[in-house]
Amino acid sequence: MIRVLFVDDHEMVRIGVTAYLSAQPDIEVIAEADDGKIAVELALLHKPDIILMDLVMKEMDGIEATKRIIDQWPDAKIIIVTSFLDDEKVYPALEAGATSYMLKTSKASDIANAVRSTYKGQSILEPEVAGKMMKRMRQKNDHFLHEELTNREMEILLLMTQGKTNQEIADELFIALKTAKVHVSNILAKLQVQDRTQAVIYAFKHNLAK
Could you tell me where the beta strands, DSSP code E, fall in 48-199? Predict the structure, then answer.
């Protein structure tokens, strides 16, 4: 049996989902809580296989409860079940240590399957949440790219945004034209772009140009 702790401050939600999960042959709801503070206590007391965690609750929200549980029990598997898709809820919840993220609009059968999948070590994310995370990862990766540039390469990139040619860059920086070309090639490689135009677009996109 997969032992579940269900945390939600809406009694009717708890009743409905608990009834469905308890009817499953492989799932058992061993405890319920209507607040994050109580959830932390029950989680550490019972060590359930899965914790279904609401986000918005009165005394302690699900994000803080998730942090406290993970801090004291790193192996806990927590599924966020909420109505919220806004960034200030999604990212903090996953960064706090939640394994999966579901919406309350999901079918009860989807939540049950998420319990089973998370129990097996998988991470289940709503499509909208997965999209947000992919976008965030791309942004982080992009940001990392220009951090690889040396001070000289960053200087040359800024000159490129001003429309300077390789010869003009060489003249302004008092370096050989060949050296300027090498720097430009290195910049394109590090930014993973194919030409100067794309490098300039990258610079403006990331507010690097003055």
Answer: 50-53, 78-82, 100-103
Tokens 């097996």 belong to 120
The half-sphere exposure of 82 on its side-chain side, counting CA atoms within 13 A, is 23
Tell me the per-residue pLDDT of 83-139, one tens digit each, with 9 for 90 and over: 888 777 888 888 899 989 999 988 999 999 999 999 999 888 877 777 776 666 666
100-103 sheet: strands from edge to edge = 27-33, 2-7, 50-53, 78-82, 100-103
CATH code where residue 183 lies: 1.10.10.10
What six digits make up the tokens of 10? 């809406």
CA distances from 199 to 6, 157, 209 (A): 50, 8, 11
DSSP reduced 3-state for 61:
coil
Domain with residue 20: its CATH number is 3.40.50.2300
Q: Say how many Å lie between the first and final Cα of the chain, rounded.
A: 61
Do the Cβ atoms of 11 and 34 come closer than 8 Å?
yes
pTM here is: 0.65
Report which of 90, 52, 44 is spatially closest to residue 68, judged by C-alpha positions.
Answer: 44
Tally of domains within the chain: 2
Q: How far is CA 83 from CA 8, 24, 80, 90, in A?
A: 12, 24, 10, 11
